[in-house]
Amino acid sequence: MKKRYQVLSLVIWNWVGLQIVTEINHYLSIWGLAVHLDMLWIVFAGVSLGKRVGLAYTFLFGILADAHLGGPHNLWLSIYVVAWGISCTARRVVQYDSPMQIRLFSVLLQALTLTFLAVALAGGQADTFAYWQRILIEGGISMSLMWLFSAPWFRLQHRLLLTLGWNPFDEKPGG
Fold first, then answer.
1. In sequence order, which residues have a C-beta less than 8 Å from that of residue 169 and are 6 or more positions away?
2. CA 72, CA 160: separation in Å to the nearest integer?
3. Which residue in 76, 95, 127, 158 is deepest, having the highest Cβ count within 10 Å?
4. What angle do CA 130, 41, 119 make, to 5 degrees?
5. Which residues of 81-111 are buried (b: 16+ CB within 10 A; e: fewer)?
6. Domains along the chain?
7. What is the pTM of this model?
């Protein structure tokens, strides 16, 4: 299977995950909450895939997320590309085969992303206690779920890529 089809398969696989999280958020909206697991998809691309392949994946996934999640123009694409860049930079420190490091890095990057989103999308609510209380509750729930799912999600994606005949960990770091 050609690499572009493998990347497309990975994008589609993660798109299904985004759809599931969106459905969960639909049912949580009764209580005014949302779950954010964005960095599950982006950290894998930054830490595990080559730079060109990871950027192509992040760009495609960011465009799909922009179309689906809404918000200001290219908000999700720009957040994902910046997070991918941070993940690529952290590749020297974070080992993809260490579940604890993957979990910690994913949770920290998700916290950074949620903080940025909370400030950027606050509007006139930024000075109210109720807004920041909701953000802290969402952040706590999201961080707990990220901690729970990040290592199994990485193993699952790695197995998916191996099933497709692609072992990204054997590639040279620059490619």
1. 48, 96, 158
2. 33
3. 76
4. 25
5. bbbbbbbbebbeebebeeeebbbebbbbbbb
6. 3-170 (1.10.1760)
7. 0.83
